[in-house]
Structure formats: C-alpha cells, structure tokens
Design brief:
Glutamine Phosphoribosylpyrophosphate, subunit 1, domain 1; Rossmann fold; binds 6-O-phosphono-alpha-D-glucopyranose; alpha/beta; 3 domains; globular; 610 residues; 8-stranded antiparallel β-sheet; 16 helices
Amino acid sequence: MCGIIGYTGRRPAVPVVVEGLRSLEYRGYDSAGVSFVHRGSLRVIRSQGKLANLEERLVTEPVVTATCAMGHTRWATHGVPAERNAHPHASGDQTIAIVHNGIIENHQELKDELVKLGHVFYSETDTEVLVNLIAERRRSEPDLLHAFASALREAKGAYAVCMMHKDEPNTLYAARMSAPLIFGVGTGEHFVASDIPAFLPYTRQVVFLEDGEIVKADAGGYQLMHLSDLSEISRESQTILWDMQAARKGGYRHFMLKEIFEQPRVVTDCLTGRIPHGHEGVLLPELEHLPTPKRLHIVACGTSFHSGSWGRHLLEPWAGIPTQVEIASEFRYREATLLDAEDMVLVISQSGETADTLAALRSVRERGGKVIGLCNVVGSSIAREADAVIYTQAGPEISVASTKAMCSQMVMLALLALHWKGRKEGGAPGTPSVMEAVELLQSLPAILDDHMPAMRERAVELARAYSEATNFFYLGRGHCFPLACEGALKLKELSYIHAEGYAAGEMKHGPIALVDPAFPTFVLALNDALLPKVESNIKEIQARRGKVIALTNPGVDLPVDDRWDIPAMPAPFSAFVALPALQLFSYAMADYLGKDVDQPRNLAKSVTVE
Ligand code: G6P
C-alpha cells in the first residue's frame, strides 16, 4: 500500500508534493513525510497521522527554495504507525533518502549483513534497510545509479521506490517491481507517483513503468532503463483523458456519498457502446480472441469478491457457464488443482493493483491459463497483464469504502453473461432474453435518479433508530446473499459495528443462537421467487425476539419492526436498487456516529500487500 510522489522541475517542489499526497491519501494515512535538499543538507520531515499533521510541521521549514522533493503517505506494514517508521527514510550517513511502497521480503537477511558492517537502524521498517543497502553499495559502485540498481537487484519482494541524494539536489531516481509507479512528463518538470491524480493538475502525459525498470529524472529530461543492466528503454508517453473534477467532491459532504449518487451515471457509462442500435446482443470486442469458457473461476477480494459472487447468479443461468467464485488470497495457493484447459479465470479488481488478485492472475498465466481482467483503473497492473481487459467505467473512486465500483462491476458482469449467452444461444428456460435484459439495464439510471434522494432519507431515519446496536446480521437468499455480505462489510468498515452477512437459510445452523432484542437483523426481502423462504427466516428471528429491518418492495405484506420499500425490479436487476440502499444505510450510520467516512481506520483503498 502507501502512496509515493516525487517532483523535479522549476516550481517550489514541496507544495506540489504535499498536494500530490492529498490525492494519494486513500492509499494510507498512518503517517506522511517529505524530503528535499536545503543548502547541501538532506531534510526529512515526517509526522504521524494524517497529512494535516505534516502540513503543520512544514510551516516552520525552509521549504520554499527546493525545486525537487519527494513525499510519502503510509499504510503500516513493517512497524507500527509512528513517526520513526514514517517515510522518507534516510541512510545512516544522511546522504540518501527514499520513499517506498511494498515489502522487501529478505529485509532481515540484508539487515543482518548491514549491522555487521556497522549500520545502525532506528525504525522497524524494511525501507530503512533498503536505503542503507544503497548507501553501502555506493561505496563500491561507480555512481549512485549503479548503487541504486545494485541494491534493488538484491532486494526480494515488491517495491515502488523513489530516491534522492544530498549531492544531486535536483535529481530523482525511481524503480518499480510489483507495486504501482507512474512517471509524469511535464514541460521542464517530471513526476513519479503511485497514481495518476497525484500529478494530474500539472500534466496528462504519462509513462507507465513496468516491473524491473528504473527512471532517472531532473527538470531537463529523463532516462528510462532496465534494472538488470541499465540499458536504455525508449517508450512513448500516453495521454490521460481523466477530468480532475471527477476526483473532487462536487458539493457532497463526502466522496462516498458523491460516489453512491454517481451510480446512475455509472450504469449509463458502462452500457455506452455495448449495445449499438440495431445490433442483436452485447458487444465486448475485448473478448473476441478468447473462446467462451466451459467453466469460469471468478477471483477477487473485498467488495469485488461480492460482485463476483453476485455475477455467478447470472453467469450460470443465463450463459450456462458453471462458475466458481473465490477469494484471491485463497485461490492463489490452490488453483493448480482446480483449473482445466478450457477453464477461464476472471479477476475483478477496482484498483487493478490488489496484491493477492494480481498474484492469482500471474500464477494462472504462468500455467498457461487465460485470464480476463475486470478493472476500473486504466493501465493498472491487472489491466496490463491479463489476456483481455474489460474496463468498468466507474471513474476514479476516492472513498476507501467501495460503492460505485461494485455497481459498475455488476453491470459489466451482466453484460458478460449476456455476451456469452448470445454466443452460446443457451441459458436456462425462463431467463430473460438479451433484449429484455438490456432494456431493464437501460431503465436503471432513471429509476435510481428518481429514488435515491428518498432512499437517503429513509437510510438516515433507520440509522438513527438503530444507532445503539453493536451487532447486526444481514440476510439474503440467492443473488441477495452476496448483497447481504456487502451490506455487512460496508457497515463494519465504516461504522465499526460488528455485522455478518449470512445466507438466510443458514441462520438456523448456529448464528440464530446470537439473536436477542438487542441484536437486529437486516433482511433483503425483495419480491422474488425466494421471498416465501425469506419470510420463514424472518419469522424464525422474530420468534427469538430479534428486531427485523426488511428491505422490500411496495405491496409485500411483511410484519416487521421496520420496513424499507424500494422500487420493484425483477431479480436479479433488483440488486442495482438494493445496493445503494445498503450503502446509504452504512453511510448514514457512520456519519451519525461521527466516524471518518472517507477514510475509515485501519483500511486502505488499494491493498498492494499480501
Ligand atoms: C480494499 C478496499 C476494498 C476493496 C478491496 C479489493 O480492501 O478497501 O474496498 O473492495 O480492497 O480491491 P480491488 O481494487 O481489488 O477491487
């Protein structure tokens, strides 16, 4: 995890770096720091906690003159969140500073070697080992570039790293191995960063670094090289078409709320160009070179895993493709025994950088398996390494808790199921035709736009009424089971209220023992074929004096403590209305309880550690 940025050019560099860190804070916010050279000395300024703490420290610093600087915002992996573990880390001789995202797996071995050579360590981090290793190699290598490369060749694990030296105050060195790093090319200025928004106000010209590459840059130019032998690489920059406004709050109190309300637009964007007028079926040219899978394995983490679990309820009946859904951190250790030659793997990842999902993709591809990536971030590692990539068109998602990305993934999964259904002309009887499904998808943006303001009001009422609960069950059946899991995930990650999502029929096999008047249950009781079974489960909870909130549709007769009517849609399209309701309830609860909605404690948006 962690966010890094480096700047070299003609502007005062520290404000550019601090501004960049602000847009990278979603990657971690346990501590932040910057470094630059002032009058021949390396200055490293760090602070525990959020960026605001660092900014306070910078008020008294001579930051104005530096035109080259680098910064870091941290999500703790090695060592507790504390100032001594914050980045940048400087070498013991105070000549070199680095910022690092990733984990150096052989740090202990390297540290033992360095300790024997007299190096002293002040933090618990692997990064401090790396910077001292560079300083050590500097003694024997002809220059800093060779020392940097030599140290990195010895490091095992993942890194995106940026370095500066007190004797080269305007030069940045950066390298990448299994962690995101992007290089920005401006006019008389250059940037390195973990993500594009960090330098988007200054340039749209981007060079995507690949694993095993080094870049050396100053205001006047840059050299891109292979880490292995420092041979030069020539690569054109690409133009990024993102709008910076999209990365701002647009009048909402929180990014999360803005992103929830963006879902109607997200549905429209995902459908654009996929169902051309007069064309029978769904257009996914990205998949043209791949066969229709005999069996599909969906692999993902967190919210993306829940989308995949929901998608299975469409892929199996509509396209007739047996589908298994697995958490990436589990799948990656056992997939060798699972995959047949005609199987295909679909990895779902908003960021395209989640370490476990990426590792699963790589190990499938190493065994000759085919992988489709469903990603939001253009040019991300998963997008670049998959055999085919489908982009989800959600736009930048800033809130750490994922909302609109799930909606976009669900639309694309529906399109994928319809695309494969079209190819096979299969699917179980009673499933919608491609045209029926497409019409229902196209009707969603207007329905959502009309009903979301009222849904928000109801969410606020219910959040207030249940704000004293310390536990929640979320129940659903069929395609509503993954939604129940997502509802529970959102509540716990935002409000820190314990919540579990269960298949409604599973309650009686143990969990129901927990139910009492203080332990409410949020039931997805939508008007579909499984409703009678869900009603029985509600009665079982009520018989144990448990309170029930039912997310249901007008006309459904349900005697519960609190009902929440949302517009009716046929299953599984009803999920697109239920999802924002669940998100809004968690948002309202967290907001009412005064929690940090956009940056919940202990979490990060992009999990690039395993
Ligand atoms: C983190 C985020 C979640 C996200 C998960 C998977 O845990 O906090 O919101 O669902 O990573 O991320 P991905 O980018 O792979 O979808």
